[in-house]
Amino acid sequence: MDGQAAWVVRAGATPTDVKRDVRNAYQAAFVEAYERYYSRVFGFIYSRVGNAEVSKDLTAEVFEKVYTKGHSLREAAAYTTWLFMIAKNVVVGHYRRQKRDTNGMHKVRESLWLKGGPSGPEDSALRGETVSILMKQVRKLSQRNQELLALKFEGELSYAEIARVLGMSEVNVRVSLFRALKRLRDLMAEEPQ
């Protein structure tokens, strides 16, 4: 998916054969990228949208755009950043179409349950209460901070990748994430026990 196909032209190959070989190589590279990044892109989108079905649709839209525009990518190293930039833009487009307020990770609570359920009823109640409090506090953060946290923890992007997606410097991303986490800790500390 790096925009530059590498293949060997067979002796006597027709232009049609070469086109077919290039198309097959591109499709194979796309399938590999899809398998590698699907869960990370879905997690990022789900953290922003909060609805599993909508997230599946938007993730499909992201990979449709990746497939149609992937040949234009010049550097393989920029692939992850490019992919998450598309994901971010698809989410923005979704909210524009829906004309709804974005409140970030309003349903991450459900996604946390997908990562491993509690072992018993008491654990379930305690975890549910803690997650509810955490999500209430996350919603108090600015949109920018919610997006930074979603890219870092749901999208699993590096600081450099987040910087490219959001058009910030890497140092600014580190400082902003540190401040967002500190603000979240402070809000959690203020929460009555």
The secondary-structure class comes to mainly alpha
Low-confidence stretches: 1-9, 100-115
Sequence of secondary-structure elements: HHHHHHHH
CATH homologous superfamily placement of the largest domain: RNA polymerase sigma factor, region 2, helix turn helix motif
Query: How many strands appear in the DSSP assignment?
Result: 0
Main beta-sheet annotation: none
Number of helices: 8
Q: CATH class of the largest domain, please?
A: Mainly Alpha
Domains counted in the coordinates: how many? 2
Termini Cα gap:
50 Å
Q: Beta-strand percentage?
A: under 5%
Tell the overall outline: elongated
Query: What is the residue-mean pLDDT, rounded to a whole number?
Result: 76
Under the CATH scheme, which architecture of the largest domain would be assigned?
A: Orthogonal Bundle
- In percent, how helical is the residue content? over 70%
The CATH topology of the largest domain comes to Rna Polymerase Sigma Factor, Chain: A
Q: What Rg is obtained from the alpha carbons, in whole angstroms?
A: 20 Å
Kindly list the characteristics that best describe this protein:
193 residues; mainly alpha; Rna Polymerase Sigma Factor, Chain: A; Arc Repressor Mutant, subunit A; 2 domains; 8 helices; 73% helix; 0% strand; elongated; disordered N terminus
